[in-house]
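User: Continuing from earlier, I have the next pair ready.

Assistant: Great, send them over.

User: Here they are, in order.

Assistant: Folding the first of the pair now:
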Amino acid sequence: MRHSFSHHVETIQVPVTDIWPRRVQENFRPILNIQGLCELLQIATNDDDKASSSESSSAKGKKRSSSPPARRHRSTKRAKTVGGFSVQRGESEAASTDSREAEDFVWPGMTFPNVEYNPLSFIELFESTEVVPVLQHIFEIQYTNKPTIEDDIPASWKIEDEHLLEILAEFQSRITEPRTIDLGDVVLARYCGRLVVTSPSLKTRSSWMLLLPSFAPPIDLAWHGISSQVVEDIMMACFVLETADRAAMQARLEIVILPSNTCDVGQNELPFRLQLTTNISLRTPSIYEPFPRETKKKPLGIEDAQRRVLEFLYPSDATTPESYGGATNIPFFYSILRPAPYLPSPSIEEAMQPSELCPTLLPFQRRSVAWLLDREGKTATPNGNIVPKAPAAEFSFWDKIEEGNTTWYFNRLSGMLSPSPPEDAPVLGGILAEEPGLGKTLETIALILMNPAPPERNPSLTRWDPEARLYVKAIKTSLIVTPPALASQWADELAAHAPSLKVLIYDGWSKVPVPITRTQLEEARSKMLTQKDKKSKKKNSSESKVKSKSKKKSDEDMDVDEDRATNADETEVIDWCTYVNGFDVVITTYTVLRSDFNVALAAPERPRREDVYYANVERPRSPLVMCEWNRVIMDEVQMVGGGKTEDMVSLIPRLSSFAVSGTPARTQVADLIHVLKFLRVDRIISSTRLWNRLITTGFGAAHFAALFQNYALRTLKSNVKEELTIPQQTRYLVGISLGPVEKHIYDQAVEAVLLDIGLDARGVAGSEGWQVDGSVLRSSIRRLRGICTHPQVGQLQRPGDRLYKPGAVKTIEDVLQNMRESNWRTMMDDHKAKVQGLVRLAQLQNRDEQDENRSQHALNTLLLAEKEAMALVEEAQSALDKHMAKVSTNRGDGPRELSDRGKGKERQLSEPLSEDETSEDEESSTSPATEEHGKKRGALQNRLRECRIALHRAKFLQGDMHHGLGPAHSADEDAAYAAADAMRRDLLKGTEEDAMRAMDLLEHDATRKKLTQDAFMIEVPFLDDSGIRALMKKYHPTKAERDERPQPHKVRLHDRAARSQELIEEANEIMDTVLNDQSVLIWEWRAHITSLLTQKLSPGEGEADGEEYQRTLDNQGEAETYLQSYAALLADRRQAILNERTLLAAHDAREQKLRNTKAAMNAIQAILADAVLTFSEDVELQPEHEVLHTQLSAKRKSLLERLNGRAIKSILIDLNASATQIKQTQDAEKLILKDIVTDLRQFIAEQGALMDKLDADLTLLRKAFNQRILYFRQLQEISDSVAEVTRETTIVDALLETSLDKDELDAKLNRTKARQRYLEHLTKNKDDGIQDEDEESCILCRCEFARGFITHCAHVFCEGCMKAWLLRKEGKTCPVCRVPIDPYSIERFTVGQPEQEKPPQRLVNGEPAPKSRRQISYNMIDANLFSEVNLMESFGDFGSKIQTLVRHLIYIKFTDPGAKSIVFSAWADSLHILQRALKDNGIRCLRIDQKSKGESAAKVFKSDPDILVLLLHGERENAGLNVTCASRVFLLESVVHHGFEIQAIARIDRMGQTRPTEVYCYYAEDTVERNILDLAARQGLSLYTIENSAGTINVSSLATDVETKVVDSPRKKAQKGDFIFKMDDMLAILFPHMFEDIEYLLPAEDSVMQSAYTEDQSSFSGRDTGNAVAGPSRLSIRHGTQ
């Protein structure tokens, strides 16, 4: 039990508002209730008098002794004044006298608030439950009456003070030493966040006695992870526990009256003190219960209170490591880990070398193996024997606490108490986190050899596994789980270093070669027995000698495994556990784990009915969870992450677990929870909330260190450099200057990023209240980083796509071409929009009645629109001509004259391909290039037509304006209308010709002319029934014969002939009443449709009456109605003949299928159902058309009703059946029926041929109809284009809005035109390969120059003129074309060799933009080496960076033959592009995900001397691989997460490396990549500064998680990869000057990259082109914020 004491000085003059500012209406004295104190003092003294009297009466005559003050007696008046206190101890004064005297003093009115308390709660608590005293604390409170504010003490307070002093004076006058008076038990209550001492003895007044002073020993709540500020006070924390029935509080109040000479009058001390003794006890068993769940809306604070109290009672002796810098991050994690301790004796060290291991372990590796053995519960004796170690206490957050006679266990992380120690089983395993390259794989193999499973561990041992929820069998095997790229490497390492170990590769549960479930095992045994029986029978049927020979031969030919599996004993068929127990090691991958997860889970338990029998269907489970592995080793454990892989890992039963990785935390410390979950150590943490407490608090840092020091081992190369010899590594930076195309794309992307995030180039917000979207900023920076490598990064699909598809890899020339085409399309769209805007403006001007000259103004605007439209048409026509000439050149047949029409896709959109025409080009040319050219041609033709429509619109409306100007302009009006009409006819020419041709076919087609109505009319009766009638007459029976039973044969012959006669008559009737009537109707409708479809498309000269267009539309509607009915009628005729309808006819007629009728009537009911009339979108459905459709349908349906579900073919089938039933071959009736059947078959065939002709004729009708529809559609489009303008606002507002839109569109069009000229300029230079002579002289000064600038409008200026122009007021536009200039996108170039001068500085509003002068000394690639690299010849153009890397690899190929290199990139697209570039240049390379002849890429790369480059993904494939055969690493971009970088570098900087290694990090100058490097250098994380560029990497100092575990503005989906955590870092990458120290932000000079070579060599950072070298511009002006 802990005892504590605190002294407090309180003034009783504190008003309520000083403590609770909002309680302005309260007037009580919160610090001390003077009236209540006096009352308790009176009660206490009266009790003393009674006790004294009782003692006196029991003395039996002895004289009662009394204290000296009791002998003095004050007067009655004085006694009244002091409130009736009995100061004469022992006097026989009645109690009633005291009462009267007390009533004589009138206390001032004062109302104390009511506080809730239970005066007996602590008594009941102590009596009803078991409590353990843990704390006694004494409050000593000295009170003063010093006012807090002068002259502001209420009068009532002064009266109380005087009365209290008078009472105390009486006591002081009779004492010489402090006197203590017990005031009784008190109860603590809470009021407005403070504790109040209340007394249950106060009967008549408020129970409020005093405000308890705070008792808060110094503590940093945030350091301990305590969120509640209330529990900082120990007493308040105890009170919270008491309210939760977890603690009990008991308090007693005493007053100490001081002699008058002991008070400090100068400090206004009152002559008394109060002593409050509090006793705190913990209540059992409720203190052991889990904490109740808390929410943000309802915080209870019980957990915080308990942790606060217990930490005060039992402080921890854990110390925070010195390396803790305020955050538990990855550097701190690495700093706390330690290497394995030294072994106690050389013999033990010698014993750590397994005899079966081929390599000899280094001393530090043997120490690590000893640590691994210790983590598996084994140790080595002094003589070197491996034995189980003595049980030792495992790491735990539980501390044993002795409190009196009670022992309990305190969890310092959770704050829980337990009466018994935790029963967690010891955790076997740990984290092998040695630095990459120190042989973790070899140490793991040594562990497997050193500590094999004992012989008695076999599948006969089973146990229930609660995680997997099944009985598992013990096996001796170790399971190794690794990334897919490392599986083959593990197999190779095991085969090379431990050949005695048997290894199995596990590829998933579906590929297991043995039975898994019991059912599968029984089926395999049954199959084996069946095979044995067959072999036995075969042998028994042969002779004994032959039998012997065949048996011998069979035994010799039998496979070894098959022989073992099909032994005579059926138990030789083994299950999975027995099978895998025969191996020492099983290797699988994380991918396999994810695929096995669903079958690894136990089947969900569902409720079942008791009275139902359920089949016990055995569900297959993953073989990985069916056995208990000896150990499970997770290689590169940081790859586990969460999700299915983590869940699957937790399900696998095992004895011990080891996590192996040089960087066990993927990107942040929080990732370590996945590792702990695999080790099953997470149980001691128990929840994510406690894990967060462990890694986010200073209190948790000490326990975090203790936890991982117990379970993890880490050896650094710097720790064992005396034992290790790894060749020197040097790291270089390679700066690449982007080419003009790449720089242009990058600048455009930067502008888009600034627009998206709402900042200008200086980082200044463009609007008030700006807030950046972190996810947008993060994705924008990622896009910029990708462009630095190649514009297509992030846009590619998988390789193997066809040429010209979106996923195909493009060269920079292709990218430039796409940019030109895309910008040209944008320019044409803007230009067309400008023309349309001008036309709209003219229409609005013409409707402005306030403008007297509105027609003239509108005409002027239309003339301008015509001029723009003509330029638009010329541009579109020129583009089409160039494309066709290019196509002709590519085909090799030279240019050919273009006509208005063409075949196939050459036809304009206004001239669609007819249905019966096919293009020879389309049939013969199916290559992707031809398809692409065809699509482009069609798009250009469509655009040309749109431009012509815009021109027609402007010209037509000019006629309207001339009309409005009066008769004087009639000639101009006629000319305008005539020109517009000519344009309209030209636009409609193609479709009009197609329609006329289709119409001519209807009138002059020879096939149609051969079709006549007579050919379809059938002569009836078609079938001759005279022979049948003669038979009927011959067999006609008499009445007697008819009545005879059974009927004679004659009667049966007559009836059979009668049935045949009925069928013949039915066929003749159908032909007469249905088919012939249908023929008449068909011919009538066909003639009418033809007449409708051959009418003129447009009226002739002098025939127009204004209604011709409406009549034409009506005719089209009538024609479509007739066409639909006509198609249905043809289907009806086929139905009448064949009893079937074509699918097309059924679809066109929209027949409804009725399924609730008999099959015999189904077809006829469907035909008779009302068909739905539907028109094409170009023909408006009119009511008269619906009426006409109903009438036509009624006509054809009336004919169908006559069929009654029958058809000619139905009758044919019935007649043929009747003939077949007659057995006699020469029977007369049979012969007649055969002839009739033959006639019907010939009839059906002839009618079928005629129907085919009608179907072909229908196609011609449809074609004519469609061509006419297309013609009228385009005519309608042209008509709509000249419709009246619509508006929703006033004419003035509409004019203003249109004018503003026009101005904005003009500016945009100027920009796109300028950019198009610039792109054309780039294309021209790239195609010609020479410098334009005009570029060697400035447009302004006409002087030659060496250094100049080119604008996006393709105008060239010298540097001096450009700088002078930009500083002028009018320098916002180009001096030549007045196109607005974007200073940030101006391209700088030099003529001839680049000069060794600094680039000009950026300007913003005429002033230099902030530029850092910080000098960072990087280790750059040697200038001479880089110059030689750039002189290497290479094929292709895949961007400056990739092409330079290709030349670098070519240079290595020639200067260091056979040397192998590794290339890392953070983007898969970069690797695909690089792979294409290397292939084009004859450098064999391999991606890690590629296999060759079943071997892994890593193994092929090591073994094949011709493969010189291995391509790896910087995130997914940067860990674990041992590629010491390579000596160079190339990083294609600067990285943000340096853990990725370290892992990548460690692939070659490791044990087994025999050559000095080099690392080259490529980056693009003047881009975010350079800013990323500078940011890392400022943070001390760069690997490429002069001081960090050589030798071993200090991983602990370089590893970082950006000092946080929380991603700023994270996405909903979990983010992975090389992305940036912090918002400040992202802004620092885009705007470096915003986060630079002010001392470096001076405008004197630019910051220059300090490299390992001299300044005059810095020009070699870009490619040498020989002529003009384009590069980024540093000259820019930004006029205001955007």
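And the other member of the pair:
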Amino acid sequence: MGVKIKLVLAVVLILSANVLGQDEIVNDTESTVSVTEAQVVELETDVKEKEDETFEETSPVELLPATENLEVRSGKYQLNDGLVGEEPVNLEAVDFNSNNVESEKQLLSPPSTTVVTGTDYSYIDGRVLPATTYQNNGQPYVITTQRLQQIRSNFMYWFYDQGGSDNIGDYQRDIHTSTPQIHKNFNFQLPFFGFRFNYTRISMNGYIYFSDPPDHYTYPLSFPVRDWPNINDPSFIGIFFSKCRIGNMRPEEPDPRRPGIYFRLDRDLQTRTDQLGVEMRERVTWDIREGVIGSETFFPKHTITITWKNMSFAGGIDNSLFMTNTFQMVLATDEVFTYAIFNYLEINWSSHTEAGGDTTTGEGGIPAYIGFNAGNGTRSYEYKPYSQASVLRDLTGRGWANGFPGRHIFRIDENILMGTCNKDIDGANLPLMFAPESGNMLGGTIVNITGPCFNPNDRITCRFDTESVLGAVVDVNRAICVQPRFWHNGYARFEVAINNEPYKWKGRYFVETPATATEKIFFPDNSVHERYPPEVRITWDRFNLTTNLNVQLQISLWGYKEVTIRPQLEYIDMIEVGVANTGEYVINPQNFRNRENIMHNDMQFGFLQINLTTPEVFKGVPISPILWSRPIPLGWYFAPQWERLHGQRWSNSMCNNWLRTDRFLKNFAAQVWVCPCTLEHALLDKGRFMPDLDCDRDTNPTCRYHWGGIHCVRSGAPSSEGSGQQCCYDKNGFLMLSYDQMWGSKPSRSHDFGFTPYNEANKVPSLSRWFHDMIPFYQCCLWQEEQAVGCETFRFERRPSQDCVAYQSPGVAGIFGDPHIVTFDDLQYTFNGKGEYVLVRVDHSQLKLDVQGRFEQVPRNIHGAVNATHLTSVVAASNNSQTIEVRLRPQHAQWRYRLDVFANGKRVYFDRTALRVQYFPGVTVYQPMYVLNQSEIVVMFSSGAGLEVVENRGFMTARVYLPWTFMNQTRGLFGNWSLDVNDDFTRPDGTLASVDLNNFQSAHRDFAQHWQLTDREQRDIGVAMFVREYGRTAAYYNDNEFIPNFIREPANFLPANRSHDVARAIEICQNSYQCRYDYGMTLNRDMAEFTKNYLSSITNIKEQNARRVISCGILETPRFGRKSNFFFTPGTRVNFECNQDFILTGDKRRVCEDNGRWNLPDYGYTECLRKQEYSSRTLGATWGIISAVMLPIIIILICVAWRILQRRKAEEREENEFLDVKTRAIDPDDSVKVTSDDESIPYKKDVTEETPEPTEGVQAVEPSDPNYNYGRPYVNLQPGQPRQWGGETEIN
């Protein structure tokens, strides 16, 4: 018995020595107790053995590898700092009346366990504030896995009541009943609820706040304060917002630290090397990463730990001081993201007496408020159902963050997002927190879910739109579901049901198109786009799959085709199995040369997929994250198979097949917008064209498919039949045409956003465009020569660029400053109404548009209230589109986002690359790629109308862009667009107001005020479409009693003693009366200068749009030839040249004339001919010329010969007739004598007489008398004798 007493005494003495050693640094080997040497040796041996058993040597690590779930703790002070597996401590075995300084770990150590003393751990875990310069033997401290697990097994974070300059540690003795708050500077930025603060005030009443509270509170508390700014609306974080006072410790209290408020600030944790800094950093990092979904990359820079220990309620009797609550708030931030950890250790009362609680126990009345308020009348978040409800006591047994009941975690930087489950809430539309918030349309994204509390055997069902999938429970706070495949993009309904309950946990999940989704598989070179690459190298971020880098992966190939009405995305082949997760892999296409994919060799593009070889299984549900590549052509895989099918010219054969197929489809060219001629016009057409991410000068200047281009735009919404337009521009800013080169602009049969109903062929986002428009470009052009027949058919016939001859720039109107308005017809006036008004209204049977603006009073200046307003919100909708509102954020809430965007009543953000462009029914909303802070938002409607909202230094402008189909259709403050300023002041009833532009009151009273909106539908005006928060209707903003300043010039409305302000206004603004007015009213130089800037911007836009570009249109490049330039404006001279071995024919030069037409060719249209063809054509032309020349000669010769022949024939006939006449007897009865001046010819007397009978032939008989004289006349003959010729001829 004596030995046992001695042993116990020695242990106690050593414990005391250890504690005393925490007050000042001593040598670990020094002994501070008086015991025998043998006892010391024996105890040191025991301690050493225990150290060997408990703290095994491990290699230092900075990252915590995957471990089993931490043991669930009770949340009370029984939680010790020992390793996992220690038994709870019997608190009765500890003497709490001892004056020894003891750490929480020592207090909670079981009496049967030998405690490790004189270690670095005990230095941190005591009650004495450690020095931040303390390190492990002068070396940077490296935490071990065991130590990290040890400190994370403790419920409460460190707080100290001793040490420091005043020996009070973190204790705030300046906070007491008479001074219930204290100011603290952070010296860093703490993002909170959209705002950002570098200071705080700690209140004894269970909250910290950043702005002044109201003088009095009424219960129950309601935030934001509706009467702000007349009554202060504080910005605060309320862990237990109730009137408190510092209580007393109960006799059984396990923690001897004094009651009160503790505050500790740990800055610059990322660079700290001391033990406390490193351990605080790692503890917070892993508590948040494992406790909150979506925080896997969070790395804290600064932490704030505030502890309210033993706080009683105000107004109670003396004995109520022992009725106390203890809770702790830990804030961690990297100055972008902020997380709040609420640790509720003990709650014994819920209400103070002023809120109706009793004076003894603090029960009844209105319980404490728990939640967050952004302040300045903006937003609030009340932690239901616990806040101001009797179930507040359940906070100590709920939350379960990191396995601890009583721990609740929130993300609080922009919105308040609950990081732990909520077991006690119920309703039909409960908020669901999930991460990631978006995923690839192809599916496979692991979605982590928090909201409901899960039991291990719960059946989890996740519904994405209409498709349901089974989920798996990970722990009480988290479940996971695998996103299924979608056939559409944009936001989808995401709902979760547990067991047989209805789908009451709801959110919105954003679906990214495959072509615009976050790129996760990278191709360092262009090999994947080639026909026969030697290898294809891929890389990926290995942490995107799993934190376990030792797992094995598999790489597979998928393809897409449209051969039926349903799209087909199918598995093709396994590229490799058992790939190490190194982040890179090289594909050898030769390994697949002998593949025969009979069912899939018609798939010409597809995707690479990487996932786990052996998926993890949670409750029977296999879970494997999937990485998808962007769409890629499959020539590197299928080329050998296509070669066996189509021959070596397989690309030509496949191009021809596509040409035959595409010719059967409907022509869509007439459905798309006409391209602008210049890049300047394209950038200013905000309603019809947006940047093309495949060729964007800000984010993707490579322009793979438009070599030589610097920027492309595409239509912001699909046409009425689902097609899209693309317009690309060269370094000179002129439109690139496919008639000039294969890199020119190309319209697309399928828009990248798809078309309703999306799940049919030709309508699938990205995939249909690749199938119908991108792959044919590979087959016909990229995999052939540019001047191949197939490529020219593609360029000239199937996907030809449209010239810009018919392009018309949009009309523009805008509003800015105080507010100043420029109408579509360039009329400028000022209207300072206060409320909500119609900017543009179009109400036509086939064309509808509503654009509305909210005007609020300008903040006060140094002289008091400012009687002027400015634009703070714009909302728009067209036809059946969703409503989009763009709202100016409060000045101090603009550190990250300058504008708030609401789509269908919900806030949306554009801070991630995949979210820069978001498509909603009937409307596309995007943030320009060069903007990172949401300071410029463009809204594009399918009708071609556009809205651009820009913010600078807290001042907002809105510009509306309308195509010419809206001409003579508009009404509202922006006037009637008719190119006539005289009808701009048209009231809703159609009457014209007579307005004096120099008299602001005239425009205010007689015209603009008639366009005020209400929450009730008004004929020809409409109804206000703004998102209503906290009951703020149109009546809240409309103030018809507000009388603004109607005087135009500061010299006329400022007092005489402020002449320096007048001079300053003139100096800053010069000739801009809008700028002078704004400066004179507000004395805000930023506002005045941006008013001047916005006026200049809209003026320049109007002038640029009015500057019509005359285009001569398309001048085709000759086949096998080239043009000296691709310009098409008047004065352009284009020279033609031919390739080698080709000869140019036709005009060598064409000129674009001033009338917008190319000059007519003098020598025929230009062609480039092969030498053989040219020779053949030249020979033919030569023979043609010869033929053309010889043919008339031949004809003439023939005619001459014919005439000669005829003449000869005539002469022969005459001669024959002469001989006939000479040799036959002439009947004098049948002949007459016909005499003429020239000669006598035979003449038939009557051709109607019958032909005489033929006579006998005349015989020429030689005379018997050779001396017969033929010249002598006839002599008289006897009857019956032949008559002799007498020298004359007789004709009968």
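Worth noting for the second one:
The mean pLDDT is 84. The two ends are 191 Å apart (CA to CA).
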